[in-house]
From TrEMBL:
InterPro entries per record: AAA_22 (IPR049945), BTAD (IPR005158), OmpR/PhoB-type_DNA-bd (IPR001867), P-loop_NTPase (IPR027417), Sig_transdc_resp-reg_C-effctor (IPR016032), TPR-like_helical_dom_sf (IPR011990), TPR_rpt (IPR019734), WH-like_DNA-bd_sf (IPR036388)
Gene3D superfamilies reported for this sequence: P-loop containing nucleotide triphosphate hydrolases (3.40.50.300), Tetratricopeptide repeat domain (1.25.40.10), Winged helix-like DNA-binding domain superfamily/Winged helix DNA-binding domain (1.10.10.10)
UniProt name for this protein: Putative ATPase
Sequence similarity: Belongs to the AfsR/DnrI/RedD regulatory family.
Keyword DNA-binding included in the entry's annotation: yes
Residues in the DNA-binding region annotation: 1-96
The OmpR/PhoB-type domain, residue ranges: 1-96
Family matches, as SMART domains: BTAD, Trans_reg_C
Key words of the record: DNA-binding
Gene Ontology biological process: phosphorelay signal transduction system; regulation of DNA-templated transcription
GO molecular function: ATP hydrolysis activity; DNA binding
């Protein structure tokens, strides 16, 4: 049987036949049971919901009659369906497997957003809009609908909702943004005026500050309203209006669109302009400076995906599976990306891909759009605009000889200032005659090479030296890097001549110019020496990066900008010194896979310094911690420490990266030694870090005094040092201590501050963990809708970052709220998903917790034998770890699994004594299961 509540009540049989539900009260009754689907509703509650303050004389008998009518209607449509409505001691329960609201949420979770939106036929629970019993469920679904409409920028849907709810300010804000992003600024402003007048007329109020700011942002065309991460254009796009419209139409109808055409024809410029016209998330991956092996890492970086371990392609596909995104892959012809694009598109229904290349990818479903040279009028307009002259016949003659290729026109226009239009035309004629007639080379390449050769000939010796040496840079570079590697000050002169492009305070070479210059560098015999200077510069840059302290955020941004140059330096000559200088940056950014690969390549180079080799080995083992089997962690770490000697930072790092999975005794010994050494050496940052780790290790024993002592001292030190990453680490134990003791306001304060700091640093895995932490507090304080929202947000972010630990933590939170609400099947699915992974990595504490939750589920279903077996396994795991709080939790579970009241009381007493022993009695908010178990045994 299919039930629909996303609009007027809809009931259909499995075969699709409509089911008539007679009488308004029977339909209201069915909707009430659907609101509480799967959980019993008492007769008193149903009577109150149906009749309010005016119940019929024989209310119970009348309700039973309505129940009978409902069962009869269902059974008549599909025999046997009367069993969907059952009665028990707690009341009436509707077991409905297929409800459109559930399907809607499943489609949203899987990223099938358009299908989810199509399920809506009107307001949720439209037939009972004025009934209090439906309010919470209705509001929750409507809020999810708003989130969905915001994600897909569905303007018609938002317009309809604004008509139905004209005074809802958040809805109005979404509508205004959607109108603005669709290029309808005037309508967005009118929408604001409509709300302002309606509020004044009906409520005597003004719009809130957020709407006022949005209105002002629209008036000033604030770029922050567009969620598109693309470089800003330096000038207007000329001559591509019709092509842009055609491309926009093709992109609406096709998920893979490829711009094909010769080099320098303007494919990239057109793609960026098209991207800026899109609504929603747009990401650019510049492939020109990359080699084949760099493609997946570049995609991961562009998508803010944590590069942790293993095969990146499946994790990229998983990250994109629930996102609505336009991905621009720029300059693909030198790389084989067809299979990557195919797999991503097949896994991510909300993904569209725009490719620029000199040749098609050759994939099924690929739509090609040729980007031709400019027609003569447009070419002349472009040349005249760039050169600052009129579009004369002489200018048109130059454009004809340059074949209308935008790159050639741009380069030629820079010479007008020195030569004049006539002098340029004369010299251009000479150059084309000189370079014509080549065999085996496409005409378009000869034309482009002629243009670059001509520009090269006009440079002096210093400019030529600088230009060819710039070819060793990958992506963008700084003025400082260009000057030091190029060994002169000619960069700005090259910018003036449009041979180097300025981009947001940095510089880059056009792709064709870069390839040309590399040939010139080889011809000059300078490639080896220049690459050595390039590697030396970036080693010094990495070594001077202050990633521990107040400059952390700015240095992370600076190193992000240089990521392609670091890769280029390591590709040219793997260096232990460079990987050691970059290791902490890689760790903070979550690029553990990139770190391991780079370190392994450097370790494979013989003859390097033994101390550097030892340091690199420590980094390598630490970066591998969460990939290794639990039993392998300690042995690998001890081998690394044998090489490193009594180095406190090595001791600390190999403990910090293993604290949740390694041997707690060994980890505590290492930490104590590190604290001793940091103290004697006066290393305040190291001491703060080690104290935060010791506080985390004491979580296992619920030593609240030690957790608070070390956490507060660590936070004090990190505050003095101005290290935001350190603050995140220090507050972790303080958050856990507050949660254990039931001090939820303190936990929330620390968590909200942590989310803000992590977002500011771009540490998205930390954002996921802390968001899930807020979800835990919402769960403990009974706000289950908020808990689910936060846990789901954290889970999706963890998937995007490909961080299994964060994903597990978030999904376990979803399981907790599901069990608390009686959705036992959902809870069981959330919990069991993670047992194999935790077993693989040696996550015994997590295994103990999940087994206890599964034991409670079995007990709530009445399967006491299975419950007892699960709780006993949890008890064994908890005893292995030595966590007395986990042991107490398992004992409480065993109390629920036994049918003997005396034995249950003995288990509960023992658990209570254990919690008292460690100074962590169970807070009232966590008494749900104990109260439930006591009540069951008392009833006996």
């Amino acid at each position: 049987m299919y039930f629909g509540v996303l609009g007027p009540l809809l009931v259909r049989t499995d075969g699709g036949e409509p089911v008539a539900i007679p009488d308004t009260k029977v339909r209201t009754l069915l909707l009430d049971l659907l609101v509480h689907r799967g959980t019993p509703v008492s007769a008193d509650r149903l009577i109150d919901d149906l009749w309010g303050l005016r119940p019929p004389r024989n209310a119970t008998g009348t309700l039973q009659a309505r129940i009978s009518q409902l069962r009869t209607a269902l059974d008549r449509a599909e025999p046997g369906s009367r069993a969907l409505v059952t009665h028990g001691p707690a009341g009436y329960t509707l077991t409905a497997e297929v409800v459109d609201s559930n399907i809607f949420e499943q489609l949203m979770a899987s990223g099938r957003l358009r299908e989810a939106l199509d399920l809506w036929r009107g307001p949720a629970y439209a037939d009972v809009a004025d009934h209090e019993f439906a309010r919470a469920a209705r509001d929750r679904l409507e809020e999810l609908r708003l989130v969905l409409l915001e994600q897909i920028a569905d303007l018609p849907g938002l317009t309809e909702l604004v008509r139905l709810h004209p005074l809802r300010e958040r809805l109005r804000a979404l509508h205004m943004r959607a109108l603005y992003r669709a290029g309808r600024q005037d309508e967005a402003l009118r929408s604001y005026d409509e709300l302002r007048m309606a509020l004044a007329d009906e409520l005597g109020a003004d719009p809130g500050p957020e709407l006022v700011e949005l209105h002002a942002a629209i008036l000033r065309h604030d770029g922050s309203l567009q969620p598109i991460r693309l470089p800003a254009p330096l000038n207007d796009l000329i001559g591509r209006g019709e092509l842009l419209e055609e491309a926009s139409t093709l992109l609406e109808r096709n998920r893979l669109l490829t711009f094909v055409g010769p080099g320098g024809v303007g494919k990239t410029r057109l793609a960026l302009e098209l991207g800026r016209h899109q609504t929603g998330d747009v990401r650019l991956v510049e492939l020109a400076p990359l080699r084949q092996g760099d493609v997946l890492e570049a995609l991961a970086a562009a998508l803010d995906l944590r590069d942790e371990s293993g095969d990146l392609l499946p994790r990229l596909a998983e990250s994109l599976s629930s996102r609505q995104l336009l991905l621009i892959l720029d300059n693909c012809e030198h790389l084989d990306v067809a299979d990557v694009v195919r797999r991503l598109l097949s896994s991510a229904p909300g993904l569209r891909v725009l490719v620029t290349s000199r040749e098609p990818l050759g994939l099924p479903g690929e739509r090609l759009l040729g980007v031709p040279p400019l027609e003569l009028p447009a070419a002349a307009e472009l040349f005249a605009a760039r050169a600052g002259v009129d579009a004369s016949e002489q200018v048109k003659a130059i454009c004809r000889r340059l074949d209308g290729i935008p790159l050639a026109l741009e380069l030629a226009a820079t010479r007008v200032r020195a030569l004049g239009v006539q002098g340029l035309a004369d010299r251009l004629d000479d150059r084309f005659r000189l370079l014509s007639g080549g065999r085996g080379v496409p005409e378009r390449q000869r034309t482009l090479r002629a243009t670059i050769d001509w520009s090269w000939d006009l440079l002096d010796d210093e400019e030529r030296a600088m230009l060819r040496r710039l070819a060793v840079h990958a992506g963008t570079f700084s003025l400082e890097a260009a000057t030091e590697v190029g060994q002169n000050d000619a960069l700005l002169a090259l910018v003036d001549k449009s041979l180097v492009v300025a981009v947001d305070g940095r510089y880059r070479l056009l792709e064709s110019v870069a390839a040309y210059c590399l040939e010139r560098l080889v011809e000059a015999g300078e490639e080896v020496e220049t690459r050595q200077r390039h590697a030396a510069f970036y080693l010094r840059l990495a070594a001077q990066a202050e990633l521990r302290g107040p400059d952390q955020r700015s240095w992370l941004h600076r190193l992000d900008q240089e990521a392609a140059n670091f890769r280029a330096a390591l590709d040219a000559a793997p260096s232990l010194k460079l990987v050691n200088a970059l290791a902490w940056y890689w760790y903070l950014r979550g690029r553990l896979g990139e770190a391991r690969r780079s370190i392994a390549a450097a370790l494979a180079v013989p003859g390097q310094d033994a101390a550097d080799r030892a340091t690199a080995t420590v980094w390598q083992v630490g970066m591998t911690a969460t990939d290794a089997k639990g039993s392998n962690l300690t042995a690998a770490a001890e081998e690394a420490l044998t090489l490193a000697g009594d180095d406190p930072r090595a001791l600390w790092f190999l403990t910090m990266t293993q604290w949740a999975y390694g041997d707690p005794v060994v980890l505590m010994q290492r930490t104590e030694r590190a604290i001793e050494l940091f103290t004697s050496q006066g290393d305040r940052w190291g001491l703060a870090a080690a104290l935060s780790t010791r506080a985390q290790l004491n979580i296992v024993h619920a030593d609240l005094h030690a957790m608070l002592r070390d956490g507060h001292r660590s936070l004090e030190l990190f505050d003095e040092l101005g290290d935001d990453w350190g603050r995140l680490q220090a507050t972790y134990s303080l958050i856990v201590a507050a949660e254990i003791s039931g001090d939820y306001p303190t936990a929330v304060r620390y968590l909200e501050d942590a989310v803000r700091r992590a977002e500011d640093l771009g540490l998205w895995t930390e954002v996921s963990f802390r968001t899930a932490g807020l979800g835990r507090i919402a769960y403990l304080t009974g706000n289950y809708a908020r808990a689910d929202e936060l846990h789901e947000r954290a889970r999706r972010l963890a998937i995007e970052q490909s961080n299994k630990s964060a994903e597990e933590y978030a999904e376990v939170g979803l399981g907790l709220t599901a069990r608390r609400q009686g959705r036992l099947d959902d809870a069981e699915a959330h919990f069991t998903k993670w047992l194999d992974w935790l077993t693989q990595i040696g996550g015994t504490p997590g295994i103990a917790f999940i087994l206890t939750q599964l034991g409670y589920i079995a007990e709530q279903r009445g399967n006491f034998t299975r419950a007892q077996a699960l709780h006993q396994r949890a008890l064994d795991a908890a005893r292995t770890v030595g966590d007395e709080r986990a042991i107490a939790l398992a004992l409480e579970g065993l109390a629920g699994a036994t049918e003997n009241p005396d034995q249950a009381q003995a288990f509960l007493t023992k658990a209570e004594a254990l919690r008292a022993k460690v100074g962590a009695p169970l807070p009232p908010a966590e008494h749900f299961d104990i109260n439930r178990i006591r009540s069951r045994h008392d009833d006996r």
